[in-house]
Design brief:
- Two copies of one chain form a homodimer.
- By secondary structure, chain A is α+β, with helices and mostly antiparallel strands.
- The first copy, chain A, is built from nine helices and twelve strands.
- Chain A folds into two domains: 132 residues, PurM-like, N-terminal domain (60s Ribosomal Protein L30, Chain: A); 166 residues, PurM-like C-terminal domain (Phosphoribosyl-aminoimidazole Synthetase, Chain A, domain 2, Alpha-Beta Complex), CATH 3.90.650.
- In chain A, 33% of the residues lie in helices and 24% in strands.
- In chain A, the strands form two sheets. Chain A has a seven-stranded mixed beta sheet, with helices on both faces.
- In chain A, helix 3 links the parallel strand 3 and strand 4.
- The longest helix of chain A is centred in the first third of the chain and has 19 residues.
- Chain A is globular.
- The N terminus and C terminus of chain A are likely disordered.
Chain lengths: 320, 320
């Protein structure tokens, strides 16, 4: 961790804690960790930019939580066990209150998953945060995007759309009563990565992805990588607590194009439906079957009234 | 790698290449790599911000080189063998010429070290680049900052100060003739990480750090971590080719407070001087003995005329 400005050593102190599992942590050129023998390493990184991935008014503790959460969500989608993470942060000025709260939120989530910050970088600049995570998974056990097979059940964890609903409220597209807004905002700013579910689904799920860009977009990635199609029962999609009280058009928008849900979208053979439910119970997370993998390319949306509409194999991102 | 904007998929394509050593690369939630059994993992991350770590006019290929080089330099300072890296990049708009040149410079260096890009993130935002590297080193073999022992010889690789000289020229503090400026600028924008030297020094060096913040500052980190002092023979410091033609005051500034040199500063027992020279020959890099580790705290600068001045144990960063 290079401290380019004396002032920034202050920041480093907020983030440097005694090393537990790592052999060498913050403060040397590299961190050293000892992976479990025979395991493969899973790596991911996500960058958060102010004004794009979070609003300036986000409580810093939630920002610290989310910067780590979105990365743990990537490990969850691979069925990998988190080991450690690196934090790089650029910020315009040193605001010790901000840094302390950010570190607190980040460490609360890190502690919940038994992992530690082992290094990174701090510098002056526009507020940009990058977290890189490292996890491990046994050879052949990683959940990938390309494993969905014809006949598989399509599943989603948790509830969808409250994060997108909060964004719509911030944009002035919908009015939410105070408590509802706070609840939706919590979904957007403090998602819970489904690490335990990802681990429990190893050997059961055939593919998985985390929902960061919206259900249709992320499902499109799985279908493209797996070279299959799917049908989706729109009425089965589980709306978030606040979203469930909105009108049908808003529900549809936030369910299909949510973004920032950080739930797992995964597939498993239909014969393993009970195993999936068992894994979900183990992880303490609800899961809902929402469709089926099919041989015909593209995506078919089946509505509650039985109507079916076709979404082209490409361009799910732009589907309205 | 999440592509939040359709346009940014274009960027991802420039960076996505067929995976060789990695088991799963760019395009899934995580990358998967298989470490060598029994090895420890070395991790580091560095963030580069436009206007702070590079000027807007930097050739993009050099920027791609440098973003990776500064991270490989961290692995070098630990004596770790590079395995793979993650790239996160925020940029205000998609300039395909910039992206292509950036990727070319980055991949040229990656290829030279036999490593590959396995994942990361691309997003809209101010131009900020973060690279995280992962390497491996045998247990107990990592070079650390805290291993310097009284009596050790203090060494530096390569030549120092041309990068800082280029910065002074950009700031208008010194005038350099065209070819000299280009040469100094190359030192600043395209440093060569001393990976081979770091590897060759395992089992020989007692401590190491890479020179990113300037000789006095970085030496201060080693002395503090190792709880020792040192004397430095200022006249032995090897100036860069362009710096060698500058006046003594400028030479002193750039040698002691260079920054961005990315040479290795390391210590080894005096009895191992020949082993150090052998390691340097193996790596094809010049090394120079520049001082000695001493029990008395603080740093003593010994000038060519025999005068000695004391630098306090703390505050090397602010030493003028």
């Amino acid at each position: 961790m290079h401290e380019h400005v004396g002032e920034f050593e202050l920041i480093a102190r907020h983030f440097a804690r005694p090393v537990r599992r790592a052999l060498l942590g913050v403060g040397d050129d590299c961190a050293l960790i000892a992976p479990t023998p025979g395991m493969q390493l899973a790596l991911a990184a996500d960058m958060l930019v102010e004004g794009r991935h979070f609003v300036a008014t986000v409580p810093p503790a939630r920002l610290g939580h989310k910067a780590l959460a979105v990365n743990l969500s990537d490990l969850a989608a691979c069925g990998a066990r988190p080991l450690a993470f690196l934090l790089s942060i650029a910020m315009p000025r040193v605001d010790e209150g901000f840094v302390a709260a950010f570190a607190e939120g980040m460490y609360a989530l890190a502690d919940a998953h038994g992992i530690e910050l082992v290094g990174g970088d701090t510098t002056a600049g526009p507020l940009v945060i990058n977290v890189s995570v490292i996890g491990e998974v046994a050879p052949g056990q990683a959940l990938r995007r390309d494993g969905a097979r014809v006949g598989d059940t399509l599943w989603v964890s948790g509830r969808l759309g409250d994060a997108r609903l909060a964004l719509e409220a911030l944009r002035g597209q919908v009015r939410l009563a105070g408590e509802d807004f706070e609840r939706a905002r919590l979904a957007m700013e403090a998602p819970q990565p489904r690490v335990a579910l990802g681990l429990a689904l190893r050997g059961i799920a055939t593919s998985a992805i985390d929902l960061s860009d919206g259900l249709l977009g992320d499902l499109g990635h799985v279908l493209a990588a797996s070279r299959v199609g799917a049908s989706l029962d729109v009425a089965t999609l589980p709306p978030g607590e606040v979203l469930a009280r909105q009108d049908p058009a808003m529900q549809r928008l936030c369910l299909l194009h949510g973004g920032d849900d950080y739930e797992l979208l995964f597939t498993a053979p239909a014969a393993r439906d009970e195993a999936v439910r068992g894994a979900a119970r183990t992880a303490g997370v609800d899961v809902t079957p929402i469709g089926r993998i099919e041989a015909a390319p593209g995506l078919r949306l089946r509505e509650a009234d039985g109507r079916e509409s076709e979404v082209a194999a490409r361009g799910f991102d732009h589907f309205a």
